[in-house]
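U., I forgot to send this yesterday:
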Amino acid sequence: MQYTLPPGFSLRRPTIEDLKQTVEMIRASEKAENGRVRTTENDLRVRWSEDPNYDISVDGWLLIAPDGCIAGTIGVGHREVTRMHCGPKVHPDYAGLGLYAYLLELGLERACECVPHAPPDTRVTLNVYTSDKAVEAYQALKSAGFTHVRSDWLMQIDMDQPPPEPVWGQGLELRPYAPEMLYSVYLADDEAFQDHWGYMPHVFEQWQKWNNQREGFDPSLWFVAFDGEEIAGIALCGYEDGEAWIGELGVRRPWRKRGLGLALLHHAFGKFYRRGTHRVILNADSQNLTGAIRLYTRAGMRQVEQYDIYQLELRAGKELSTETLAV
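Result:
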């Protein structure tokens, strides 16, 4: 390896007993970078123990400080081997020691081991998602040859009065979510996001774990718009750490440019407002291929944070993920 650990630091694989301390370390890192935490204990538990494509004994590492505390961590996600992800995190108490670069090198080595499992002649990349304020991360990524390819914006609305009532287009109606809709909602969500940069197909069982099986799931905050018996659009919302989130907002192609996205937003805003929650957040691709940023801005949302996607090509070939809007 090019990088070495400072004296007294050590490296080991995580175990499920490390879960709580690792989450605390990640959240401290997130708090230091942006003043907002994004990772929950449930998020990491699902990844460590319920993802069949992730094995902490080979895909993850912990850096241990001289005092025995967890100083950093990284895991390489390779559910889609052609588009792998890793997210090095370092506790702010240990910033400036080169730990991020060390972790990134570990992640890159693991990703390279997975390349032969990708379909022949396909392009393989390793992708890192990080705050635009993470200076040490940026320097390490640049040194390792990663290129900034995209940015996500955290967008937010602060409502000092009730939002407009939703206007549903002709033939469209909102119906309460019911469990028997689940698979149809999954299909609608997957179809709507096929037009988003970086899209790769989602397996239903894994989609469930991050949606209706996640901790705090509230079915009353899932909004499904129908045209007859066809799902036209969805807004899958919920609370995370007390904050209101629009997790997925999707409109299927045949129903776009009819005001449905705005209607779903207004309905979701109104639902949260009536619950006493006046701030609502969502994550969006800043260069969204379907023009979603214009929609969110029109609805009164504004950018409050930025997260950058850095990419390193590990093998040239045919790109399997969505990069342009198909016609």
